[in-house]
Amino acid sequence: MHVTRLELADFRSYGSVEIELRPGPVAFVGANGQGKTNLVEAIDYLATLDSHRVSSDTPLVRAGAERAIVRAQLQREDRSALLELEITPGRSNRARVNGNPLPRVRDLVGIARTVLFSPEDLALVKGDPSDRRRFLDHLVVMRTPRFAGVKADYDRVLKQRNTLLKTAGRRSNVEISTLDIWDENLARTGGQLVAARLALLDALAPHATDAYRDVAAGAAAERQVVSLVYKPSVEGVEELRDPDDIAKALLDEIGRRRREELERGISLVGPHRDDVLLGIGDLPAKGYASHGESWSLALALRLAAFALLREDGDDPILILDDVFAELDSDRRSRLAARVAGAEQVLVTAAVEGDVPTELVGQSFDVAGAVVTPRD
Ligand SMILES: Nc1ncnc2c1ncn2[C@@H]1O[C@H](COP(=O)(O)OP(=O)(O)OP(=O)(O)O)[C@@H](O)[C@H]1O
Ligand SMILES: [Mg+2]
Q1: I need a labelling partner for 208 at 20 to 30 A (CA). Which of 86, 166, 168, 348 fits?
Q2: Which of this chain's residues are annotated to bind ATP (predicted)?
Q3: Quick one: which atom of ligand 1 is closest to the CA of 30?
Q4: What residues does each domain of the chain span?
Protein backbone atom coordinates (compact mmCIF):
# COMPACT_ATOMS: atom_id res chain seq x y z
CA MET A 1 0.00 0.00 0.00
CA HIS A 2 1.01 3.62 -0.31
CA VAL A 3 -0.24 7.09 0.53
CA THR A 4 -1.00 9.28 -2.46
CA ARG A 5 -1.99 12.40 -0.61
CA LEU A 6 -1.53 13.76 2.91
CA GLU A 7 -3.39 16.67 4.40
CA LEU A 8 -2.83 18.10 7.86
CA ALA A 9 -4.65 20.82 9.75
CA ASP A 10 -3.29 22.07 13.08
CA PHE A 11 -1.19 18.93 13.51
CA ARG A 12 2.02 19.66 15.49
CA SER A 13 3.79 22.63 13.87
CA TYR A 14 1.55 22.58 10.78
CA GLY A 15 -1.28 25.08 10.34
CA SER A 16 -2.24 23.50 7.09
CA VAL A 17 -0.38 21.44 4.53
CA GLU A 18 -1.27 19.28 1.55
CA ILE A 19 1.16 17.08 -0.30
CA GLU A 20 0.90 14.58 -3.12
CA LEU A 21 3.06 11.50 -2.69
CA ARG A 22 4.21 8.91 -5.16
CA PRO A 23 5.02 5.27 -4.51
CA GLY A 24 8.68 4.37 -4.14
CA PRO A 25 11.17 6.34 -2.05
CA VAL A 26 10.08 9.77 -0.78
CA ALA A 27 12.55 11.99 1.09
CA PHE A 28 11.76 14.89 3.40
CA VAL A 29 14.86 17.02 3.79
CA GLY A 30 15.34 20.01 6.06
CA ALA A 31 17.22 21.40 9.02
CA ASN A 32 16.45 20.40 12.61
CA GLY A 33 13.08 21.33 14.00
CA GLN A 34 11.51 22.20 10.64
CA GLY A 35 8.72 19.60 10.73
CA LYS A 36 10.01 16.47 8.98
CA THR A 37 9.23 14.03 11.78
CA ASN A 38 5.88 15.73 12.33
CA LEU A 39 4.85 14.75 8.78
CA VAL A 40 5.71 11.09 9.03
CA GLU A 41 4.43 10.89 12.60
CA ALA A 42 1.03 11.98 11.25
CA ILE A 43 0.94 9.04 8.82
CA ASP A 44 2.10 6.59 11.47
CA TYR A 45 -0.47 7.91 13.92
CA LEU A 46 -3.23 7.46 11.39
CA ALA A 47 -2.20 3.81 11.02
CA THR A 48 -1.57 2.94 14.67
CA LEU A 49 -3.26 5.65 16.79
CA ASP A 50 0.02 5.78 18.64
CA SER A 51 3.03 8.06 18.43
CA HIS A 52 6.64 7.01 18.83
CA ARG A 53 7.33 10.26 20.62
CA VAL A 54 4.44 10.93 22.99
CA SER A 55 1.85 8.99 24.92
CA SER A 56 -0.75 11.74 25.12
CA ASP A 57 -2.61 13.48 22.29
CA THR A 58 -2.03 17.00 23.50
CA PRO A 59 1.37 17.62 21.82
CA LEU A 60 -0.06 16.40 18.50
CA VAL A 61 -2.35 19.40 18.27
CA ARG A 62 -0.82 22.69 17.23
CA ALA A 63 -0.27 24.95 20.22
CA GLY A 64 -3.27 27.22 20.55
CA ALA A 65 -5.55 25.08 18.35
CA GLU A 66 -8.42 22.98 19.63
CA ARG A 67 -8.09 19.96 17.38
CA ALA A 68 -5.93 18.47 14.68
CA ILE A 69 -6.99 16.76 11.50
CA VAL A 70 -4.98 14.15 9.62
CA ARG A 71 -6.32 13.05 6.26
CA ALA A 72 -4.67 10.58 3.91
CA GLN A 73 -5.63 8.98 0.65
CA LEU A 74 -4.49 5.40 0.79
CA GLN A 75 -3.94 3.26 -2.28
CA ARG A 76 -3.99 -0.49 -1.92
CA GLU A 77 -3.64 -2.37 -5.18
CA ASP A 78 -6.45 -0.94 -7.31
CA ARG A 79 -8.50 0.36 -4.40
CA SER A 80 -8.32 3.73 -2.77
CA ALA A 81 -9.63 4.89 0.61
CA LEU A 82 -9.76 8.27 2.29
CA LEU A 83 -8.81 7.99 5.97
CA GLU A 84 -9.59 10.88 8.27
CA LEU A 85 -8.81 11.38 11.92
CA GLU A 86 -9.83 14.24 14.15
CA ILE A 87 -7.72 14.53 17.30
CA THR A 88 -9.27 16.48 20.15
CA PRO A 89 -7.30 16.22 23.40
CA GLY A 90 -9.47 15.59 26.41
CA ARG A 91 -12.33 14.33 24.24
CA SER A 92 -12.69 11.16 22.20
CA ASN A 93 -11.12 11.29 18.77
CA ARG A 94 -13.14 10.62 15.65
CA ALA A 95 -12.33 8.68 12.54
CA ARG A 96 -13.91 8.39 9.10
CA VAL A 97 -13.26 6.17 6.14
CA ASN A 98 -14.48 7.43 2.78
CA GLY A 99 -16.59 9.95 4.67
CA ASN A 100 -18.32 7.35 6.85
CA PRO A 101 -17.81 7.75 10.60
CA LEU A 102 -16.37 4.66 12.31
CA PRO A 103 -18.30 3.50 15.40
CA ARG A 104 -15.06 3.28 17.36
CA VAL A 105 -11.96 5.25 16.55
CA ARG A 106 -9.80 2.19 17.15
CA ASP A 107 -11.41 0.54 14.11
CA LEU A 108 -9.07 2.76 12.13
CA VAL A 109 -6.01 0.87 13.40
CA GLY A 110 -4.47 -1.36 10.78
CA ILE A 111 -6.34 -0.01 7.74
CA ALA A 112 -3.14 1.79 6.85
CA ARG A 113 -0.14 -0.28 7.89
CA THR A 114 3.19 1.25 8.71
CA VAL A 115 6.56 0.14 9.99
CA LEU A 116 8.46 3.01 11.53
CA PHE A 117 12.21 3.07 12.14
CA SER A 118 13.54 5.81 14.40
CA PRO A 119 16.51 6.52 16.64
CA GLU A 120 14.22 5.65 19.59
CA ASP A 121 14.31 2.02 18.36
CA LEU A 122 17.52 1.41 20.26
CA ALA A 123 15.22 1.16 23.29
CA LEU A 124 13.85 -2.09 21.82
CA VAL A 125 17.17 -3.66 22.75
CA LYS A 126 18.44 -1.52 25.60
CA GLY A 127 15.23 -0.21 27.13
CA ASP A 128 12.59 -1.47 29.54
CA PRO A 129 10.35 -4.51 28.99
CA SER A 130 7.52 -2.08 28.22
CA ASP A 131 9.31 -1.02 25.02
CA ARG A 132 9.37 -4.61 23.79
CA ARG A 133 5.80 -5.30 24.85
CA ARG A 134 4.70 -2.25 22.92
CA PHE A 135 6.55 -3.47 19.84
CA LEU A 136 4.87 -6.87 20.06
CA ASP A 137 1.37 -5.60 20.74
CA HIS A 138 1.63 -3.07 17.96
CA LEU A 139 2.54 -5.70 15.46
CA VAL A 140 -0.12 -8.10 16.73
CA VAL A 141 -2.74 -5.38 16.18
CA MET A 142 -1.37 -4.41 12.74
CA ARG A 143 -1.64 -8.02 11.61
CA THR A 144 -4.94 -8.80 13.34
CA PRO A 145 -6.87 -5.61 14.09
CA ARG A 146 -9.40 -7.33 16.40
CA PHE A 147 -6.61 -7.52 18.97
CA ALA A 148 -6.93 -3.76 19.44
CA GLY A 149 -10.16 -4.70 21.25
CA VAL A 150 -8.53 -7.52 23.24
CA LYS A 151 -5.72 -5.20 24.31
CA ALA A 152 -8.17 -2.45 25.30
CA ASP A 153 -10.22 -4.99 27.30
CA TYR A 154 -7.12 -6.29 29.04
CA ASP A 155 -5.94 -2.79 29.95
CA ARG A 156 -9.35 -1.92 31.34
CA VAL A 157 -9.63 -5.13 33.39
CA LEU A 158 -6.11 -4.63 34.73
CA LYS A 159 -6.85 -1.09 35.80
CA GLN A 160 -10.09 -2.00 37.55
CA ARG A 161 -8.54 -5.04 39.18
CA ASN A 162 -5.67 -2.94 40.51
CA THR A 163 -8.11 -0.44 41.97
CA LEU A 164 -9.97 -3.28 43.64
CA LEU A 165 -6.76 -4.84 45.00
CA LYS A 166 -5.78 -1.55 46.57
CA THR A 167 -9.05 -1.21 48.46
CA ALA A 168 -9.81 -4.91 49.10
CA GLY A 169 -6.53 -5.41 50.94
CA ARG A 170 -7.86 -3.15 53.63
CA ARG A 171 -11.54 -4.04 53.55
CA SER A 172 -14.29 -6.61 53.47
CA ASN A 173 -14.61 -10.14 52.12
CA VAL A 174 -17.33 -8.94 49.77
CA GLU A 175 -14.79 -7.20 47.64
CA ILE A 176 -12.52 -10.20 47.72
CA SER A 177 -15.25 -12.30 46.16
CA THR A 178 -15.70 -9.73 43.36
CA LEU A 179 -12.00 -10.08 42.82
CA ASP A 180 -12.61 -13.65 41.61
CA ILE A 181 -14.54 -12.28 38.65
CA TRP A 182 -11.73 -9.91 37.77
CA ASP A 183 -9.21 -12.73 38.09
CA GLU A 184 -11.08 -14.66 35.45
CA ASN A 185 -11.42 -11.66 33.16
CA LEU A 186 -7.74 -10.90 33.51
CA ALA A 187 -6.74 -14.49 32.79
CA ARG A 188 -9.08 -14.81 29.82
CA THR A 189 -8.08 -11.58 28.02
CA GLY A 190 -4.48 -12.04 29.14
CA GLY A 191 -4.46 -15.57 27.72
CA GLN A 192 -5.55 -14.27 24.33
CA LEU A 193 -2.94 -11.53 24.34
CA VAL A 194 -0.09 -13.83 25.38
CA ALA A 195 -1.12 -16.44 22.79
CA ALA A 196 -1.04 -13.77 20.08
CA ARG A 197 2.40 -12.58 21.21
CA LEU A 198 3.78 -16.12 21.21
CA ALA A 199 2.44 -16.81 17.73
CA LEU A 200 3.93 -13.54 16.57
CA LEU A 201 7.36 -14.37 17.99
CA ASP A 202 7.29 -17.78 16.30
CA ALA A 203 6.63 -16.08 12.98
CA LEU A 204 9.04 -13.21 13.56
CA ALA A 205 12.14 -15.08 14.73
CA PRO A 206 13.35 -16.46 11.37
CA HIS A 207 12.87 -13.05 9.75
CA ALA A 208 14.85 -11.40 12.55
CA THR A 209 17.84 -13.69 12.05
CA ASP A 210 17.66 -13.21 8.31
CA ALA A 211 17.50 -9.41 8.62
CA TYR A 212 20.26 -9.29 11.23
CA ARG A 213 22.63 -11.19 8.99
CA ASP A 214 21.84 -8.76 6.20
CA VAL A 215 22.22 -5.57 8.20
CA ALA A 216 25.05 -6.31 10.62
CA ALA A 217 28.41 -6.08 8.95
CA GLY A 218 31.04 -8.79 9.02
CA ALA A 219 31.44 -12.50 8.54
CA ALA A 220 30.71 -13.27 12.21
CA ALA A 221 27.25 -11.73 11.94
CA GLU A 222 26.43 -13.89 8.97
CA ARG A 223 26.50 -17.00 11.14
CA GLN A 224 24.65 -15.53 14.12
CA VAL A 225 21.20 -16.62 15.14
CA VAL A 226 18.95 -14.01 16.68
CA SER A 227 16.75 -15.38 19.44
CA LEU A 228 13.48 -13.90 20.64
CA VAL A 229 12.43 -15.74 23.78
CA TYR A 230 9.23 -14.83 25.55
CA LYS A 231 9.73 -14.30 29.26
CA PRO A 232 6.31 -14.60 30.89
CA SER A 233 5.33 -13.75 34.45
CA VAL A 234 4.28 -17.39 34.85
CA GLU A 235 7.01 -19.90 34.24
CA GLY A 236 6.23 -22.44 31.53
CA VAL A 237 3.68 -20.31 29.69
CA GLU A 238 6.19 -19.73 26.89
CA GLU A 239 5.78 -23.44 26.02
CA LEU A 240 2.02 -23.12 25.57
CA ARG A 241 0.19 -21.85 22.48
CA ASP A 242 -3.51 -22.31 23.17
CA PRO A 243 -5.18 -19.19 24.69
CA ASP A 244 -7.35 -21.30 27.04
CA ASP A 245 -4.34 -23.23 28.34
CA ILE A 246 -2.51 -19.96 28.92
CA ALA A 247 -5.55 -18.46 30.66
CA LYS A 248 -5.65 -21.47 32.97
CA ALA A 249 -1.96 -21.15 33.80
CA LEU A 250 -2.44 -17.44 34.54
CA LEU A 251 -5.47 -18.11 36.73
CA ASP A 252 -3.63 -20.79 38.73
CA GLU A 253 -0.75 -18.43 39.37
CA ILE A 254 -3.09 -15.58 40.29
CA GLY A 255 -4.63 -17.94 42.87
CA ARG A 256 -1.21 -18.75 44.29
CA ARG A 257 -0.19 -15.14 44.58
CA ARG A 258 -3.40 -13.61 45.87
CA ARG A 259 -2.06 -12.75 49.30
CA GLU A 260 1.00 -11.05 47.84
CA GLU A 261 -1.17 -9.12 45.41
CA LEU A 262 -3.47 -7.96 48.19
CA GLU A 263 -0.50 -6.88 50.26
CA ARG A 264 1.07 -4.93 47.45
CA GLY A 265 -2.16 -3.74 45.88
CA ILE A 266 -1.17 -4.50 42.27
CA SER A 267 -1.58 -7.28 39.73
CA LEU A 268 1.62 -9.30 39.59
CA VAL A 269 0.56 -11.86 36.98
CA GLY A 270 -0.24 -11.26 33.33
CA PRO A 271 1.10 -9.99 30.03
CA HIS A 272 1.69 -6.51 31.48
CA ARG A 273 4.60 -8.04 33.44
CA ASP A 274 6.12 -10.01 30.56
CA ASP A 275 9.23 -9.39 28.48
CA VAL A 276 11.08 -10.72 25.47
CA LEU A 277 14.70 -11.77 25.90
CA LEU A 278 16.63 -10.83 22.81
CA GLY A 279 19.80 -12.72 22.06
CA ILE A 280 22.54 -12.68 19.47
CA GLY A 281 24.18 -16.09 19.22
CA ASP A 282 24.46 -17.52 22.72
CA LEU A 283 24.49 -14.21 24.55
CA PRO A 284 21.68 -11.94 25.66
CA ALA A 285 21.68 -8.64 23.76
CA LYS A 286 20.91 -6.49 26.78
CA GLY A 287 24.09 -5.93 28.73
CA TYR A 288 26.28 -7.79 26.22
CA ALA A 289 25.78 -6.49 22.69
CA SER A 290 27.92 -3.58 21.52
CA HIS A 291 26.31 -0.32 20.51
CA GLY A 292 26.56 -1.23 16.82
CA GLU A 293 25.23 -4.73 17.39
CA SER A 294 22.33 -3.32 19.40
CA TRP A 295 21.52 -0.99 16.53
CA SER A 296 21.67 -3.82 14.03
CA LEU A 297 19.35 -5.89 16.18
CA ALA A 298 16.86 -3.05 16.54
CA LEU A 299 16.88 -2.55 12.77
CA ALA A 300 16.52 -6.30 12.28
CA LEU A 301 13.39 -6.34 14.44
CA ARG A 302 11.80 -3.59 12.36
CA LEU A 303 12.85 -5.29 9.14
CA ALA A 304 11.40 -8.54 10.42
CA ALA A 305 8.12 -6.74 11.11
CA PHE A 306 8.19 -5.44 7.55
CA ALA A 307 8.89 -8.91 6.14
CA LEU A 308 6.04 -10.40 8.13
CA LEU A 309 3.49 -7.80 7.06
CA ARG A 310 4.69 -8.18 3.48
CA GLU A 311 4.12 -11.94 3.80
CA ASP A 312 0.50 -11.20 4.74
CA GLY A 313 0.12 -9.99 1.18
CA ASP A 314 0.73 -6.25 1.06
CA ASP A 315 3.74 -4.02 1.72
CA PRO A 316 3.26 -1.74 4.69
CA ILE A 317 4.38 1.87 4.32
CA LEU A 318 7.95 2.07 5.56
CA ILE A 319 8.96 5.15 7.50
CA LEU A 320 12.62 5.79 8.25
CA ASP A 321 12.77 8.78 10.54
CA ASP A 322 16.29 10.11 10.86
CA VAL A 323 17.92 6.69 10.99
CA PHE A 324 20.59 7.00 8.32
CA ALA A 325 22.50 9.72 10.16
CA GLU A 326 22.87 7.27 13.07
CA LEU A 327 24.47 4.51 11.02
CA ASP A 328 27.93 3.96 9.60
CA SER A 329 28.13 3.86 5.83
CA ASP A 330 28.19 0.08 5.65
CA ARG A 331 25.00 -0.41 7.67
CA ARG A 332 23.46 2.51 5.85
CA SER A 333 23.79 0.90 2.46
CA ARG A 334 22.82 -2.54 3.73
CA LEU A 335 19.63 -1.13 5.24
CA ALA A 336 18.89 0.95 2.15
CA ALA A 337 19.33 -2.06 -0.13
CA ARG A 338 16.98 -4.07 2.03
CA VAL A 339 14.13 -1.51 1.96
CA ALA A 340 14.63 -0.03 -1.51
CA GLY A 341 12.15 -2.43 -3.14
CA ALA A 342 9.25 -1.61 -0.78
CA GLU A 343 6.13 -0.10 -2.28
CA GLN A 344 6.62 3.21 -0.47
CA VAL A 345 9.48 4.34 1.75
CA LEU A 346 9.28 7.67 3.54
CA VAL A 347 12.67 8.96 4.66
CA THR A 348 13.50 12.02 6.72
CA ALA A 349 16.98 13.49 6.77
CA ALA A 350 18.56 16.74 7.90
CA VAL A 351 20.86 16.87 4.85
CA GLU A 352 20.38 15.42 1.43
CA GLY A 353 23.67 13.52 1.68
CA ASP A 354 22.17 11.34 4.43
CA VAL A 355 19.65 9.87 1.98
CA PRO A 356 21.29 6.78 0.48
CA THR A 357 21.45 6.67 -3.31
CA GLU A 358 19.21 3.59 -3.35
CA LEU A 359 16.47 5.73 -1.85
CA VAL A 360 16.68 8.76 -4.08
CA GLY A 361 13.27 9.39 -5.60
CA GLN A 362 10.59 11.96 -4.92
CA SER A 363 11.87 14.63 -2.58
CA PHE A 364 10.54 17.54 -0.55
CA ASP A 365 12.16 20.45 1.22
CA VAL A 366 10.79 21.04 4.68
CA ALA A 367 11.38 24.47 6.23
CA GLY A 368 9.36 26.21 8.92
CA ALA A 369 6.40 23.83 8.53
CA VAL A 370 6.25 24.54 4.79
CA VAL A 371 6.70 21.54 2.51
CA THR A 372 7.90 22.18 -1.02
CA PRO A 373 8.30 19.50 -3.69
CA ARG A 374 11.68 19.51 -5.42
CA ASP A 375 10.31 18.40 -8.77
N1 LIG B 1 1.88 20.86 19.19
C2 LIG B 1 2.78 21.66 18.60
N3 LIG B 1 2.47 22.93 18.30
C4 LIG B 1 3.36 23.75 17.70
N5 LIG B 1 4.60 23.37 17.37
C6 LIG B 1 4.97 22.11 17.65
C7 LIG B 1 4.09 21.20 18.27
N8 LIG B 1 4.72 20.01 18.43
C9 LIG B 1 5.95 20.19 17.92
N10 LIG B 1 6.10 21.44 17.45
C11 LIG B 1 7.30 22.02 16.84
O12 LIG B 1 7.68 21.21 15.75
C13 LIG B 1 9.09 21.29 15.63
C14 LIG B 1 9.68 19.89 15.56
O15 LIG B 1 9.31 19.36 14.37
P16 LIG B 1 9.92 17.96 13.95
O17 LIG B 1 10.09 17.09 15.12
O18 LIG B 1 9.09 17.47 12.83
O19 LIG B 1 11.35 18.43 13.46
P20 LIG B 1 12.33 17.69 12.48
O21 LIG B 1 12.31 18.44 11.17
O22 LIG B 1 12.05 16.26 12.42
O23 LIG B 1 13.71 17.98 13.21
P24 LIG B 1 14.98 17.03 13.51
O25 LIG B 1 15.81 17.06 12.28
O26 LIG B 1 15.64 17.73 14.64
O27 LIG B 1 14.46 15.69 13.85
C28 LIG B 1 9.65 21.93 16.85
O29 LIG B 1 10.09 23.22 16.51
C30 LIG B 1 8.48 21.96 17.79
O31 LIG B 1 8.51 23.09 18.60
MG1 LIG C 1 12.96 14.60 13.29
Answers
A1: 348
A2: 30-37
A3: 21
A4: 1-113+315-375
Q: Which residues line ligand 1 (CB under 6 A)?
A: 12-13, 30, 32-38, 59, 61-63, 322, 348, 350, 366
Q: Which of 116, 175, 110 is nearest to 140 (CA)?
A: 110
Which CA distances in Å does 40 have to 7, 43, 291, 299?
A: 12, 5, 26, 18
Task: Give per-residue pLDDT as tens, 39-98.
Answer: 999 999 999 998 888 889 999 999 999 999 999 999 999 999 999 999 999 999 999 999
Rounded to 5 degrees, what are φ and ψ at 179?
-60, -35
- Closest residue by Cα to atom 14, ligand 1, is 33
CA nearest 265: which of 195, 340, 165? 165
Q: How far is CA 2 from CA 20, 37, 58, 114, 314, in A?
A: 11, 18, 27, 10, 10
CA of 180 to the centre of ligand 1 (A): 48
Q: Which ligand is nearest to the CA of 366?
A: 1
Radius of gyration of the chain (CA): 22
**Residue ranges for the binding site?**
30-37
In this prediction, residue 370 carries a pLDDT of: 97
Q: Is the pLDDT of residue 169 over 70?
A: no
Q: 74 CB contacts (<8 Å, ≥6 apart)?
A: 1, 2, 3, 4, 80, 81, 82, 83, 111, 112
Q: What is the pLDDT of residues 16-49, one digit of tens each?
A: 999 999 999 999 999 999 999 999 999 999 999 9
Q: Which residues are annotated as a binding site for ATP?
A: 30-37
Mutate to test the pocket of ligand 1, among 34, 40, 52, 365 (most ligand atoms within 8 A of CB): 34
Yes or no: domain 1-113+315-375 corresponds to CATH 1.10.260.40: no
pLDDT band at 222 (very low <50, low <70, confident <90, very high): confident
